[in-house]
Amino acid sequence: MSMLGMDEGKALALADRLESRDFDGDDRRACVECSHLGNGGRCLAAAAGRLRNTDRRHEPVLDVLQRCEGFGLRKGMQ
Fold it and tell me: Does residue 9 surpass a pLDDT of 80?
């Protein structure tokens, strides 16, 4: 997760929340799991105009669990 600009503490806290989410069967996702998260931290789905009511320069909060119509699972994640 360091490649996404998270410090170790924040990454570990997110990992705990993702584990709890999976255990509880929650269908929300974090942007760090999405294949549309660009290297600069911007949402590529928004940049392509695929997200309604979202600015094309959208820079998502990486560790917020949410439902997103543009979500695509990042390669290597389950």
Answer: yes
